[in-house]
Amino acid sequence: MKIVITGSLGNISKPLATTLVQSGHNVTVISTNIEKSKAIESIGAIPAIGRIQDVDFLIRTFAGADAVYCMNPLDFTELDLSAWLRNTETYIQAIRQTGVHRVVVLSGWVAHLLQSNPEAAWQALSGPAITLIRPGSFYSNFYSLKDMIRQHGYIASVYGGEDMVAFVAPEDIADAIAEEITNMKSTNKVRYVASDELTCNQAAGILGEAIGKPGLQWIAIPEQQLQAGLESAGLPPSFASLMVEMQSIMHSGKAQKDYYLNKPVTPGKIKFSNFAREFALWYANN
Questions:
Q1: Which helix (H) or strand (E) holds 5?
Q2: What span, in angstroms and rounded, lies between the C-alpha atoms of 236 and 243?
Q3: Domains in the chain and their CATH numbers?
Q4: What residue spans of 153-222 are helical by DSSP H?
């Protein structure tokens, strides 16, 4: 199959591209950075250098592809949230123009519950078979919490305590996407991906033990406090509001309700305890 992947050599796209190439597929990887070309070629894929906001570039790159993987990276330097949402429209225009038959889209655990609902446009698209991938909370998100843990001795977000969270390793997401994107007989569907299910307190306890901070707590804070904290850290208000909305949905239990109705039959391979050991090594040296 001829498959086009977005996301450059990120935490999901690199293992995804590697898996697909090793399975014998013709893989093109889109990146904005021309310096990534050699690294893309080194795994046996073809680099396509351009921006996903450029519909003509996408049309050229998608032409002749059997399947495409679309992800919409958050740009926290972008002041206009609507500009980020318009990337989906560009993808859809290129898919319609080129007649791609199979599409896999990286969504999110709570995306369909957001006021902006970035899944809506995909669900309205007729023609290709579309799989919406809804991964849980990424293990890699914990790397951004290093300073909070060091300086304050706890993790804080709008959700916390006994709130249950489906956590996921990017490699497990890549495996799920690889399985979906090569299934040309698939029909439209939603697929949740999770590696482990833990309460916030359980996750904090495992992480705390690994880094030598037993008793590490994960506390829930008011929405206004998080909004103010994110804005003071330099996040545009629109994106800060989006983060608050996402976390509020997780705290409300709405995300968990839908997840349990459609949870993965088989969880991912990489458990939170495996990640905690990796995080501990990184934490000790950063």
A1: strand 2-5
A2: 11
A3: 2-135+170-193 (3.40.50.720), 196-284 (3.90.25.10)
A4: 170-181, 200-211
113-129 pLDDT, tens digit per residue, is: 999 899 999 999 999 99
Buried b (16+ CB within 10 A) or exposed e, 272-282: beebbeebbee
Q: What DSSP string runs through 24-84? A: T-EEEEEES-GGGHHHHHHTT-EEEES-TT-HHHHHHHHTT-SEEEE-----TT-S-HHHH
Is 250 exposed, middle or buried (CB count within 10 Å of its CB: 0-12, 13-18, 19+)? Answer: buried
pTM over 0.85? The answer is yes
Q: What is the pLDDT of residues 239-264, one digit of tens each?
A: 899 999 999 999 999 999 999 999 99
Burial state string for 68-84 with b = 16 or more CB within 10 A and e = fewer than 16: bbbbbeeeeeeeebeeb
Q: Give the residue carrying structure tokens 């829930």.
A: 220
